[in-house]
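Sequence, please.
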């Protein structure tokens, strides 16, 4: 479908063409909301930034000229489960963005949440054909990399060169033009479940859009919420979404690990609905307005009006204390954070130099979440607001919109992938896999 090297390469070409034309859309289809941004690109300024290798100037070449947001439909646990419903939501968000931009788009970069991402690090090496490293040498080294294990029903979505070695010594992020005899490349690969990926691609096509890229949702959130030093020294982004919790780890400015748990804010809503016997819609409203992670003495005296399940008459409404509400929220929230901690520990995050953790997503807006997360995760924690992009409206500038803003930053300066090099790298059949972060800890 879209994970052969030729297909990935075609998406990259569509991205480059859209940037040259100066208009592209980014799309985040989440369990709670669907967001679309239309970006105007200053192609000359972007080309100048690429020549300098400046991420800041590349991002400054973007301007948000249209934004559309609507409630999601047909999405569960971060994945599309009813295509027609998801299509309706995407069309609504797209039409609103196009109307505010006064322009139509046909190319889009989409975020993929859930889908059980799995990370591996692989290595390839090749002798140089000349005295200096050229793009064809990188392609040959990539072609020599061990093939990641592909289980049935899995698709490769990212294959990112994250470190180069020249004659066995670590080099810069881009070794082209440097003298050496041999070139080695460490490749971070991410695979996902095939069905969520294909359903997302099909839903986008049904809206008369072409995919110019698919990015793991946790990676997109990390790109927008982690500052440059955090990405370099080692930091994790935990995106507390409605249907899933997406985890990404960055080191030396590169994504080195991706993971996702099928737990999120919708589970808190369901617990409130069941535990306090009220309709799901009311449970979501009360969670958003009054929810929190830590109860205080004042919360016992703060009363919230709430209906009984199945009761619509005003006389049937009752009052519950905010402490009772928090008492329902806290166990599930702690479960989500403890699961995230286990996943970070398995990845070897505790051995990285920075170890900063940033929370994004709708769940990160619960009162007291920082203190609770810091206690459970055992690390310094902050709430991550997405990086400012010119023209970004206030309605999509909060932590719950970090992923869609990260897609915009990715559009301006996408990280190199294996399929960016000529000739297209094709993985060799050898196999030697280790967890990505563990490999970096042992070898850097």
């Amino acid at each position: 479908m879209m994970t052969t090297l030729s297909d990935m390469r075609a998406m990259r070409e569509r991205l480059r063409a859209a940037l040259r034309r100066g208009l592209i859309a980014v799309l985040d289809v989440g369990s709670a909301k669907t967001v679309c941004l239309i970006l105007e690109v200053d192609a000359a300024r972007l080309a100048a930034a690429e020549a300098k290798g400046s991420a800041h100037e590349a991002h400054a070449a973007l301007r948000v000229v249209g934004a559309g947001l609507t409630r999601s439909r047909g999405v569960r646990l971060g994945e599309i489960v009813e295509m027609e419903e998801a299509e309706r939501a995407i069309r609504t968000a797209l039409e609103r963005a196009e109307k505010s931009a006064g322009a139509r788009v046909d190319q889009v970069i989409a975020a993929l949440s859930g889908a059980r991402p799995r990370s591996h690090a692989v290595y390839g090496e090749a002798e140089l054909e000349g005295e200096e490293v050229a793009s064809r040498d990188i392609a040959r080294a990539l072609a020599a990399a061990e093939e990641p294990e592909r289980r049935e029903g899995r698709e490769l979505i990212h294959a990112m060169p994250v470190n180069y070695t020249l004659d066995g010594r670590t080099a810069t992020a881009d070794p082209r033009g440097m003298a050496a005899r041999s070139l080695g490349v460490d490749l971070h690969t991410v695979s996902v479940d095939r069905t969520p990926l294909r359903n997302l691609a099909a839903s986008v096509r049904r809206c008369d859009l072409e995919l110019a890229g698919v990015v793991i949702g946790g990676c997109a959130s990390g790109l927008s919420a982690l500052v440059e030093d955090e990405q370099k020294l080692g930091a994790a982004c935990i995106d507390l979404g409605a249907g899933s919790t997406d985890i990404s780890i960055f080191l030396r400015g590169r994504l080195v690990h991706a993971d996702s748990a099928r737990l999120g804010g919708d589970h808190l809503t369901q617990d409130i609905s069941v535990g306090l016997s009220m309709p799901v819609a009311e449970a979501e409203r009360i969670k958003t307005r009054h929810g929190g992670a830590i109860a205080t003495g004042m919360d016992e005296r703060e009363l919230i009006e709430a209906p009984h399940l199945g009761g619509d008459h005003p006389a049937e409404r009752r009052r519950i204390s905010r402490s009772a509400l928090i008492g329902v929220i806290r166990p599930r929230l702690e479960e989500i954070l403890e699961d995230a901690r286990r996943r970070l520990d398995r990845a070897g995050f505790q051995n990285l130099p920075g170890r900063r953790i940033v929370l994004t997503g709708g769940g990160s807006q619960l009162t007291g979440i920082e203190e609770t997360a810091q206690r459970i995760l055992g690390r310094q924690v902050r709430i991550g607001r997405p990086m400012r992009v010119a023209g970004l409206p206030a309605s999509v500038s909060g932590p719950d919109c970090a992923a869609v803003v990260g897609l915009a930053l990715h559009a301006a300066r996408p990280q190199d992938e294996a399929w960016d090099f000529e000739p297209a790298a094709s993985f060799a059949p050898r196999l030697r896999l280790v967890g990505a972060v563990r490999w970096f800890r042992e070898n850097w």
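The first helix runs from residue 5 to 21.
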